[in-house]
Amino acid sequence: MKLQPSNPRYYSADHESFRASVRRFFETEVAPHADAWDEAGSFPRELYRKAAAAGLLQPGFPEAYGGVPCDAFYRMILFEERAWGGSGGIASGLFSHTIAAPPIAAAGSEAMKARVLPPILSGEKICALAITEPAAGSDVAQLATSARRDGGYYVVNGTKLYITSGMRADYLTVAVRTGGPGAGGVSLLLVEGDTPGLTRTPLKKMGWWASDTAQLFFDDCRVPVENLIGEAGKGFAAITKNFNHERLALAAAACGYAQVCYHDALEWARVRRTFGKRLADHQVVRHQLIDMATRIEATRALLDDLASRLDDGATPVAQIAMAKNLATRTFQFCADRAVQLLGGMGYMRGSRVERLYREVKVMMIGGGAEEIMKDLAARQLEI
Questions:
Q1: Which phi-psi region, left, alpha or beta, contains residue 228 (left: φ > 0; alpha: ψ -120 to 50)?
Q2: Is 224 left (phi over 0), alpha (psi -120 to 50) or beta?
Q3: Options 29, 133, 246, 354, the catalytic residue
Q4: Is-contact 109 65, C-beta < 8 A?
Q5: Sequential DSSP letters for 227-286
């Protein structure tokens, strides 16, 4: 459900056809199972292959390896419309390759790209990004996981935390320290999931239950030097660029989930009757719905503008940080209002808005916490 038709200045008929296909996939393949998969704490691996067959895993990746080059608006649509599956956990796990595989596509060797990207984009293999550590989250330059060169191998030791798809990933894009302290010593390595010395522990979370989240332990893992992604000591720049794409994707997803919350609250207000009339006929309820709609429209306008800037070749780092904060705040507001309007029903397990309410907070933290985003924007604007 769109509050208003998409702006034709930005979205073509092909964009809208893609939007319809993405929404159809999530409404048919995900939404009917969201409750069961959430309670189970996982979803079938077959879903990756189904998503690939529907053309959802390939956008934004090079055609030579099975991808589909596209503009920023296709990517915005993909992340926004996945909200109609009603589960951030399923979506985050299903699309973990969108944060793990771009560094491979951008900086990996030709041999690495040819070997790794096709099975990821066909849904046969799963890829995860491993950056965060117990003592280094947003401050990537301080990460401690080491990769010591030993002949034709890097010997990796350390721990990674809060890794989405960390339990089931076949490939891990891992940030490691190959050099001295600070950003200049950071590199990226592709670590195979069956590497001896790699162990994984599942983590339990407030939300995103269906997405496996892991702590990873590297104990003298020997990784071939040809698995270095890009140049040694150049990993920090690749991570920073990747963060910008991740944050915009999170912002688009948050806007999508806000729209789902608005949709469910509006549908409930139209059928629920109190004191002889529909909830929607009470002025106080109508005002709450309009407050939700206003924030969603403002967020969508900013996201459309940012996608346009990206397609024009700009790198609006500060504005992307602002957009992530605005979008996740919009999602938080709409989820809270939706639960309030649904009352007891909104508090029940199995209610879509109850699940989304639990999932809001991780989106305000993941990809860079709100406070980090404000500091980043301030530095970019030279405040």
A1: beta
A2: beta
A3: 246
A4: no
A5: GEESSTT-HHHHHHHHHHHHHHHHHHHHHHHHHHHHHHHHHHHHH-EETTEEGGGSHHHH
Cα(6)–Cα(19) distance, rounded to whole angstroms?
Answer: 10
Q: pLDDT tens across 42-74, in order? A: 999 999 999 999 999 999 999 999 999 999 999
Tokens representing 308? Answer: 């346009």
Kindly report the CATH number that applies to the domain delimited by 127-231. Answer: 2.40.110.10
Q: What residue spans of 26-121 are helical by DSSP H?
A: 34-40, 46-53, 72-81, 88-94, 97-100, 102-107, 110-121
Report d(CA 342, CA 336) in Å as an integer: 10
What residue ranges of the chain are covered by domains with CATH 1.20.140.10?
A: 237-380
Specify the CATH class of 13-121 in words.
mainly alpha
C-alpha to C-alpha distance for 163 and 127, rounded to whole angstroms: 11
Start-end of CATH 2.40.110.10 domains in the chain: 127-231
Mean pLDDT, the chain cut into blocks of 10 residues (383 residues total): 70 95 98 96 97 98 97 96 96 97 97 98 98 87 95 98 97 97 95 98 96 97 98 93 93 97 96 91 95 97 96 95 98 98 93 96 93 95 92
CB 209 within 8 A of CB 354: no
CATH architecture of 237-380: Up-down Bundle (1.20)
CB 80 within 8 A of CB 307: no
Rounded to 5°, the CA angle 93-166-40 comes to: 55
Contacts of 264 (CB under 8 A, 6+ apart): 338, 342, 352, 353
Dihedral of CA atoms 65, 68, 69, 73 in degrees, nearest 10, equals -150
Domain span(s) for CATH 1.10.540.10 in the chain: 13-121
In the block, residue with structure tokens 């980043």: 376
CA distance linking residue 233 with residue 182, whole number of Å? 10
Task: Provide CB contacts within 8 A for 122, sequence distance 6+.
Answer: 49, 52, 57, 66
Is 192 a residue of the active site? no
